[in-house]
Design goal:
This protein is α/β, with parallel strands linked by helices. The chain is built from 17 helices and twelve strands.
């Protein structure tokens, strides 16, 4: 049973606050968060969760900072979660008994000192979102979605299961949180296009895993058709409840810097829900007066799956969709991103950028980071490779504070790591390969091998 008494924390006053769905494009109408609805009934556009900001402003910025800081690490349910510690800003009126949480969030903001020195950026930080229950930032959104579904079921809404199309991490998060809630989960995966670690996670958590002979975009089409049956609830990021949880990563970064804003945040993107969420959290901080300015956001794409980059290069005059080619960054191998409009807003409102990285660039960026103590997934490699480009071009200045968001743990991508160090990845020259040395059990041979290694250290 969670400890529920901590007198120094002011009691939550959720009854003051209100959150609801509305059309992102501005069509009139408000819809309950406990209604099965994903798109605007008027225009078909995406919805967003709106909050009564005037009510939230009744607390001063300093009062909000003190309250949120006091909740970090608490055992008072559910505020020890990095998401639910900001409950009033997420889903204020949900019953605590229906919250499904693994105390997600509060992940390490790693000072990448050695890597930063190598690229002339001493104030470089990496937000390790992979240090989470299922090993990715998707936990931040799934705790919110599954909690709301649990409350809907409690209120009598006839939901039989939750479902999502996934390139890996979404399926793991949905399966784990649904299992904890006792709700059946249905997972649509592109056959042969996810890592073994990502495939086994939903299987182990008891989800119904359907491996379809298509890519992610094909899985997304199928899941949208299946969830037209309102008893099967859609859990992809086009569902704005996911965005509410994921937006807390931006809030958390600022909080970890003692409420100071970095100059840049770089994030790998595929379906574009994550950068949309990042902007939404930061914008809320600004609207509530906790920060005065926004960081510049950078969306990093794999060159083999780069529709958002192509749209950006055209000044967003038209939306580009394409057939995504196979990339090592499999979680962002998406050619028709759902959250396009929201992501355009995020880039435009922050004077942001979109850049791409080749397979060779992303793999070697990940390996270089690993040599300084990290263990990076290929998607983090995309973000790092993009940062290296922006630094080389002088767009990112050496005195600026930069945060790279690492979206998943490298352990989920062991074949990628093994292939790199065996120098067998297609299109990649493994410049930092470090294969094991096989030797006989002879002390003299071992000593000689050690001497050679120490005399010829690896390149930085």
């Amino acid at each position: 049973m969670p400890i529920t008494h901590r007198p120094e924390i002011a009691p939550a006053e959720e009854h003051r606050y209100r959150a609801y769905f509305r059309c992102f494009r501005g069509c009139p109408g408000e819809y309950s968060l406990y209604q099965v609805i994903y798109r605007c009934p008027t225009c078909g556009g995406l919805l967003e969760v709106a909050h009564d900001v005037d009510a939230l402003r009744r607390r001063s910025p300093q009062e909000w900072k003190a309250l949120l800081d006091a909740r970090v690490g608490t055992t008072e349910w559910p505020y020890g979660s990095g998401v639910w510690g900001k409950k009033e800003w997420v889903v204020p009126h949900i019953d605590d008994d229906n919250i499904v949480s693994m105390f997600e969030g509060n992940s390490n903001l790693f000072w990448a000192e050695r890597l930063g020195r190598q690229i002339g950026l001493p104030d470089l930080w990496v937000k390790l979102c992979g240090n989470s229950h299922t090993g990715s930032f998707k936990d931040l959104g799934m705790t919110v979605l599954v909690s709301v579904v649990k409350q809907m079921i409690h209120q009598g809404v006839p939901i039989r299961a939750v479902a999502a199309a996934s390139t890996g991490d979404t399926s793991a998060a949905l399966a784990a949180y649904a299992a904890a809630a006792g709700i059946p989960a249905i997972i649509f995966l592109p056959q042969g296009k996810v890592s073994p670690a990502q495939l086994i996670q939903p299987i182990a958590n008891g989800a119904h895993v359907l491996a379809l002979d298509t890519d992610f975009d094909g899985c997304m089409r199928i899941v949208q058709e299946v969830t037209q049956d309102n008893t099967i609830y859609l859990a992809n990021s086009m569902n704005s409840l996911r965005i509410e949880g994921q937006k807390t990563v931006g809030i958390e970064i600022v909080q970890q810097f003692d409420w100071e804003v970095p100059d840049w945040i770089v994030i790998p993107v595929g379906n574009l829900g994550n950068i949309s969420a990042l902007y939404k959290g930061l914008k809320l901080l600004q609207r509530l007066g906790l920060i005065r300015r926004l960081p510049r956001l950078v969306a990093a794409q794999a060159a083999r799956a780069n529709p958002f980059y192509r749209s950006f290069r055209q000044g967003f005059r038209e939306r580009v969709s394409l057939h995504a080619e196979q990339t090592l960054a499999s979680a962002i191998q998406i050619g028709n991103p759902v959250s396009y409009e929201k992501a355009v807003q995020a880039i435009q409102e922050t004077d942001g950028l979109v850049e791409q990285a080749t397979e060779d660039e992303l793999a070697n960026a990940a390996a270089l980071a690993d040599r300084t103590g990290m263990y990076t997934c290929p998607h983090t490699g995309v973000a790092l490779a993009v940062l290296f480009k922006l630094r080389e071009q002088g767009i990112v200045q050496g005195h600026e504070r930069v945060v790279v968001i690492s979206t998943a743990h490298g352990l989920k991508f062991t074949p990628f790591k093994v292939g790199y160090h065996e120098d067998t990845l297609d299109g990649v020259e493994s410049r930092y390969a470090n294969p094991p040395v096989y030797l006989p059990a002879d002390p003299q041979v071992v000593r000689e091998a050690i001497a050679r290694k120490l005399e010829n250290p690896p390149r930085p």
